[in-house]
Amino acid sequence: MSTPIISLSHVRFGPAKKPILDNLSLEVPAGHFMGIIGPNGAGKSTLLTIIAGLTKPDAGHIDLFGRCLNSKTRIALQKSIGYLHQKHANQPDMPMRVYDVVAMGLTSFNQPLWNGLFADKQAEKDAIQHALTLVEMDNHIQTDFRNLSGGQQQRVRLARALVRQPKLLLLDEPSAALDSPRQEKLYKLLRKLCDENNMTVLMVEHDVAAITSYVDSVACLNKQMHHHAKKGETIPDEVWREMYGEHVNIVAHDASCIGCMPSPQKQSSQEQHHHEHHHD
Amino acid sequence: MIDFLNQFFNSPVMQDALPPALLIALITASMSIMVVAHRLSFLTVGVSHASLAGLGLAVALSLPLLPTAAATAIAIALLLAVLPNRQGINEDAGTGMLFAGSMALGVVLISSTSRNEVDLFGLLFGNILTVSPDDMQWIMGGSALVVFSIILWAKSWWSMAFDMITAKASGIATSKLRLILHGMIGLTVVMCVKLAGIVLTTGLLVLPAACAWFWGRSMFSLWALSLSFSLVGTLGGLMWSYQYDWPSGAAIILMLCVLFTASWAASWLQQQYQKSR
Predict the structure, then answer these.
(1) Interface pTM, i.e. ipTM
(2) Do A110 and B216 touch (CB under 8 A)?
């Protein structure tokens, strides 16, 4: 078996009595597309920041691309990672063209100014053009980033994460600012990148029904891994209850998707769709 | 006009004042785009006022003025970079506290020395005409360091200003570079104190980039515009100072304010024109 892209072993983060993540172990192979679901405060974003090398876990071991992630290897490993975070904390007043925002994602960007004199400008331009084409923003290449809508800005940020052609892409609610057709296009694009470029994608999302036809597996997280459902596998009702509490009301559906296979007693004559409808 | 320019450029006073003033204009223009992008204007206010503690220390202990002030300003700027992260103190509050505390220390130290030793008006409002050859050497050394740091890290600083989290995730050593940025701002502030004084230094570190902000579309265009505004502001301000016998620092800041108003008005008019089309 080839070396997994991500290997987490007994990772803990947060106070021992009330950890944010507890005893988390996970292996993700190359080219795998994983969705991560869980309630608010489940530690989903924290997990991504730990894998991205932004947060140091309090216990456990992390290997990325077969190398241990620590303070010495962090910067080298991060060059192969694309990360799109949930807080859109960019400085809204900075004058930047879309081209320049995406250029900041190139690994060659953060170099001394004299390196710019010898850089292959055409190769950089092609990479930026390609990344923007993937997210269908190539016709805005010279537009001022400040003049774009929230959804357009999100697509440019995604292009910034993709431009370095990362081996691992970490996305924290990437569809938050996107309309439904755009969300679907995004998931299709990610599926294609996994299949054709062997990119590994970890994506935090809330709507499991929307992602199940595209992902290879769904990790159910709430402080610890409650379930890791492979394609075609059902997420048992008790897992939903463990994650979201006893008050959750599970609505049965049909869907030929992960975690959404209806249990026989819930199947009705109508087409049903099963996902995390939880009502207080 | 030609006569005035001839007189201005040939005046021995201006021949001494122009090289340090233009050198300071170059580095403040370059750092000002980082100050504005990182929203560190208040840090420059804090550090410039805090440098009074360094100047007070230098006067009280008979140490060289600029190096002592530079060391103090850099130390305080670094402290301001570290404090909010470590102790959960808001950067704004940290700057306010250190600014007041070190200014108070400076006032106490200076007031306890003989008044004749200290040109308080010069410290507060600057006087480029009093730059000694020793000061000039310090300004040249400091400027070289600031320019070198910009060449090395301008792009990383720019990425960090735009989105700190993504910058860190991209493999930029953000904590280290933030410290260096604060240190370089501290150093720049001290060099500006000679030109604009403690009170007016912030203007030199904010106004050039603020003028350019309406027109720049990338880091390089902002830098070029900021440099142009800074050089024009400095030259124009020194001309006013020469013509009307105004304090040089205040005249330069006033000229930069005029340029800012003109830049803002032109940008507003352009927007109105575009809307009407």
Answers:
(1) 0.83
(2) no
